[in-house]
Predict the structure.
Amino acid sequence: MAAFLKKLFFNNISEDKSTPKVVMTLGNAQVNENEMVFAIGDIHGRLDLLEKQIQKIRRKVIEFKDKYVFHLVFLGDYIDRGHQSRQVIERLMSLKIDNCTIHYLMGNHEDILLKFLSNPHKYYKVWMAIGGIATLSNFGISGLDDVQLVRQQLLKQMGMKMIGFLNNLNISYTNGDYFFCHAVPSNDKPLNLQSKKTLLNNRKANISKYEKIVVHGHVSRDKVEFLESRINIDTGAYATENLTCLLVKNHNQIVL
């Protein structure tokens, strides 16, 4: 009887498995010692806004060049919606900043483009529904009725070097107490065990508590969101004229 009562009452009083045992908070988190990390949110074809942020970063690197090693993290969604997707990708591919390691992450829009190239009939409508028309137009592709022809023209216009760049995009980047990715991680498993699908597409979390500070985009907001263990830096650049760059150094998080 005692065993039955224990099972009846205590099986329903379980630890919330969605909450990590150790929750990282903004005030306690820091990047690696003597390192400074910049993160740029969803660009969506806005080369003009990207160039402005690159110039800000260059100035910071020059200002602190004798004190820090620098990292720049792009959180994905370089294409679609805006009108310069091709130019944005080309700029990222050629970008070099002295004493700065650049980390390029994949967004769900790059993922859908690559899936379209592999399986055009399955993913064509999905891609068009989230802004792919602007990208095709930017690559000089019109007459969108023949899906296979669209694929062939896009392959030709992009070239293998650009396609290879997109295929080699990373899913996440970790520095110290910070975890950078495109979308919102789920709460049901540690960050290092999250699936690619989740880190590219998920928008919601039951709580904002993780073992590291998550810096992400994907969920457009009017301003940067600072939550308990999460910072959302997608400020809808393609429509708002506001592309966010976050600077993290020591224990500080600064919006440039």
